[in-house]
Amino acid sequence: MTQLDEHDQAAAGDQIAPIPRITIQAFCETNETASAVNYAASDRRMLKTHVKVHMGGLSAAVEAFRDSPTPNLVILESHGSRQDLLARLGELAEFCDPTTKVIVIGRSNDILLYRELIAQGVSDYLVAPLPVLRLVQAISTLYAAKGKPLGRVIAVTGVKGGVGASTLAHNIGFLFARDYQTPTIVADLDVSFGTAALNFNQDSGGGIVDALTAPNFDHARLDGLLIRCGDMLSLLPSPATVDRLTDITDLRMDAVMDALRATTPIIVADVPHVWTSWAKRCLVTADDVVLVANPDLASLRNARNLIDELKAARPNDSPPHLVLNMTGTPKKMEISEGDFSKAADAPVACSIPFDPKSFGAAANNGQMLSEIADAARVNDVIAGLTRLLAGKAEPRVAKKQTLLSPIIELFNKARAS
Question: 81-85: long-range contacts (C-beta < 8 A, 24 or more apart)?
Fold first, then answer.
């Protein structure tokens, strides 16, 4: 099984869209390919799929589907001759449903063979040995939504309660919308105690609870639940009430996140500090994970546990971004950034200094930290984290128009030509 190094994994994985709920059966000739398929099945982008791996190659596939319906996707490994491969595929075609897609894995890097297979109805041909992410990407290409690319999910959570994860999530979403001019949704997933509406000085509304309880929820129903906070920023708020209990299932949360991905380039998910099946799923399936901690022993213990869990569950992705918040608190013993990073076995993406005046003013006024004049130091750190999450791109700040703007623009175009 071929594996990529950590940098290549992250770069390749960022380009792969999640795969919908499909059934996959693989018929392999070698243990190496069988291991690659099993390893791919554990990738976060394939969590919705149902995968079965068999040995025996094409012959086993023909026998298996003589009397059984074919799945959505069949993966076939064959190292035989071209004539034998084409003949066996023709035999298999007699038992395949018309909607079934087929990926063939072989060792011949032959463009003529590839064209013959495509002409015979094969969806894709991959050359072994097979990098895991190459297989995931091939399946994603076959089934991901065509046209508009899916949005990126940035999941932000605290390693314990009260570390400021929600405040950080809201500010990241605000900066994506304002500085990068990217349509962004901040989704408050803390259904009973969420603070997104308060922090943005908006009415709560049903928001996330209505989305989670609506039957057959999809992106067509999403628009009516969002609160607009400007041209580029919207909230999916929580009602922040305890008058009813909301049972959240993985399927419900998947439907909501799929709808968000289908409509918006950036989704910042404010994930509460709970360890439930749906909360873990939100973190595992996100494109980026931000873990917020205080520089204390309890945070260190929890951070190490979460980082280990997420690394195991996301083997083809970069590790979580670890943020230390409220560093430099007076009269408080704290773990240094270097010691915290070493013990947690993860680099610290940034350290946010203790600044109760700025954080308090922002919370009390329903503003973001970048709107508070005295919060420059804190905001510089959060802006740097946002740049990291944006791929280290420079912010595209919207230019203010003046009376001379049209003349300047014409002048610049004339110089360029």
Answer: 82/108, 82/110, 82/113, 82/116, 85/58, 85/113, 85/117
Give strand pairing partners of 51. 24
CA distance 195 to 165: 11
Which of 137, 126, 142, 139 shows the shortest CA–CA distance to 76?
126
Domain with CATH 3.40.50.300 in the chain: 152-389
CB distance 316 to 132 below 8 Å: yes
**Total residue count of the chain as it appears in this document:** 417
Contacts of residue 113, defined as CB under 8 A and 6 or more positions apart, other chains included, come to 82, 85, 106, 125
Beta bridge partners of 185: 234, 267
Please name which of 122, 232, 119, 246 lies closest in space to residue 173, comparing C-alpha atoms.
232
End-to-end CA distance of the chain: 52
pTM of the predicted protein model: 0.83
Tokens, residue 192: 């009973």
Walk along the chain (417 residues) and give the pLDDT tens digit of each residue. 334 444 444 445 557 889 989 999 999 999 999 999 999 999 999 999 999 999 999 999 999 998 889 999 999 999 888 888 888 888 888 888 889 999 999 988 888 888 888 988 899 999 998 899 999 999 999 987 665 678 999 999 999 999 999 999 999 999 999 999 999 999 999 988 999 999 999 987 778 888 888 877 777 788 889 999 989 999 999 987 887 777 888 988 998 999 999 889 999 999 999 999 999 999 999 999 999 999 999 999 999 999 999 999 999 999 999 999 999 999 889 999 999 999 999 999 999 999 999 999 999 999 999 999 788 889 999 999 999 999 854 544 444 444 544 554 555 555 555
In the chain, list all ranges with CATH 3.40.50.2300.
Answer: 6-143
Instruction: Classify domain 152-389 by CATH number.
Output: 3.40.50.300
Omega of the bond leading into 315 within 30 degrees of 0 (cis): no
Judging by DSSP bridges, how do beta strands 288-293 and 321-327 pair with one another? parallel
Return the CATH fold of 6-143. Answer: Rossmann fold (3.40.50)
